[in-house]
Inverse folding.
């Protein structure tokens, strides 16, 4: 179905959740680590404890919500659109939690640690519930490769618009220096994002439009098996024993780690490795914004290449680029400030852009599972949720590992020295940061090439044409 100017109504409705989530996720991931480390003065122990709790919750809630959405008798859970509609307001409220302190935090205050735990778990829980339903809509909207590419195209436009929130937030709040302006901007983003996601809940459709009725009938016929532990284990085992799923999940774990590495620490690395007289505050804001905006432009520009070469080759090429760029930067050294800024930004762009394509292989895995096990309806949420079970812990591991390394080389002291410390006294810290910026992407690229190469669904774009 189309509306004015040839816009596809269903693709537009689907992408509105991406727009809302993109506005909130970009700001949350980019600022929360710096906020709790620098402004709330959270201790390293409390930071790690929060990340461990978050890691466990992050891994559990995805398959849990996936199973509920695929098998629940409740209409609000069984139908993807209603999951988004009812989950959106909670998602918006959870986004606001970290930006408003629960009191005046002293250095190492236990309350700041509790604040971080609640913020991370509430935000990820609501995010998971809404975005799992949207991912399932992606797989269930159509089995045609061209239709899925169209959803990707609309999605990238929405993500492009949503990711500008980091740019405008940086400009409005002077990169969080004016905290009152930052808080006001966060409230505005939460309201706009909730409204966008409600549009998906009200207007999107799928090829399984009668899903809730079929699910209800199936549950009535098999009511004793609903939500049983045996059925959860059996379905999860079927998904996990697929070779392509294992290849994808392993590769995706490193991608999530890589993405969290850049989202959480790009600003910290740039602020310390690139002198302020080389890049002004406004230029830095544009650079940080470009790390979130340009990936969507890149995916939109590569639409024709995706049709011609398929997602498998495009993703594999991105890994080779990241590895080569990291090796070259490491050899050149950290004194080339403009080149370092270009490298960090472009690498973040490539990582985010390739990650934006990952719904395509997951949707192909859902299709293969549907055919192999002769299911009446696809286990879309369970496939996406099981993938998240193994990849989401990387979101916590990345900040834990990096913060431990940085504090070992004196970042905590740098952060808490009054006045303006002499940067030369922290040369070891700067060296550690530079090698992290180069060696982490290099090692990840090598591991991803090794794990992605055996993935066998390499020509779904060609099959679609035939």
């Amino acid at each position: 179905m189309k509306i004015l100017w040839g816009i596809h109504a269903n693709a537009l409705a689907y992408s509105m959740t991406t727009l809302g989530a993109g506005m909130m996720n970009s700001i949350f991931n980019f600022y929360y680590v710096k906020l709790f480390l620098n402004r709330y003065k959270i201790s390293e122990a409390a930071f790690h404890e929060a990340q461990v709790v978050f890691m466990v919750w992050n891994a559990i809630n995805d398959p849990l919500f996936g199973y509920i959405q695929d098998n629940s008798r409740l209409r609000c859970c069984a139908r993807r659109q209603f999951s988004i509609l009812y989950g959106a307001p909670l998602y918006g409220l959870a986004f606001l939690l970290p930006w408003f302190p629960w009191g005046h935090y002293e250095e190492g205050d236990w309350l700041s640690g509790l604040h971080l735990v609640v913020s991370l778990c509430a935000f990820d829980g609501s995010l998971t519930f809404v975005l799992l339903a949207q991912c399932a809509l992606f797989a269930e909207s159509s089995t045609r490769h061209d239709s899925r590419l169209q959803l990707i195209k609309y999605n990238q436009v929405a993500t492009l618009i949503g990711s500008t929130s980091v740019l405008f937030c940086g400009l409005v709040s002077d990169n969080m220096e004016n905290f009152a302006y930052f808080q006001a901007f966060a409230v505005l983003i939460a309201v706009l994002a909730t409204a966008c996601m409600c549009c998906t809940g009200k207007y999107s459709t799928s090829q399984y439009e009668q899903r809730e009725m079929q699910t209800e009938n199936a549950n009535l016929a098999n009511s004793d098996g609903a939500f049983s532990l045996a059925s959860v284990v059996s379905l999860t085992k079927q998904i996990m024993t697929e070779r392509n799923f294992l290849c994808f999940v392993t590769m995706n774990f490193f991608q999530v780690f890589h993405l969290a590495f850049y989202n959480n620490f790009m600003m910290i690395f740039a602020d310390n490795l690139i002198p302020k007289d080389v890049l002004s505050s406004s230029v830095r804001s544009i650079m940080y914004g470009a790390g979130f905006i340009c990936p969507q432009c890149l995916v939109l520009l590569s639409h024709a290449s995706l049709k011609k070469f398929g997602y498998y080759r495009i993703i594999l090429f991105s890994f080779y680029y990241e590895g080569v760029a990291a090796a070259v930067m490491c050899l050149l050294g950290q004194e080339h400030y403009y080149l370092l800024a270009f490298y960090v930004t472009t690498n973040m762009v490539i990582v985010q852009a390739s990650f934006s394509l990952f719904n395509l292989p997951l949707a192909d895995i859902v299709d293969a599972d549907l055919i192999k096990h002769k299911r009446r309806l696809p286990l879309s949420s369970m496939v996406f949720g099981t993938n998240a079970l193994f990849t989401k812990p990387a979101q916590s591991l990345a900040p834990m590992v990096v913060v431990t390394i940085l504090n070992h080389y004196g970042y905590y002291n740098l952060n808490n020295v009054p006045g303006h410390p002499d940067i030369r006294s922290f040369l070891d810290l700067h060296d550690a940061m530079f090698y992290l910026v180069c060696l982490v992407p290099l090692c990840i690229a090598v591991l991803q090439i090794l794990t992605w190469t055996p993935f066998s669904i390499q020509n779904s774009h060609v099959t679609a044409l035939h």
Observations:
- Residues 218-226 have pLDDT under 50 and may be disordered.
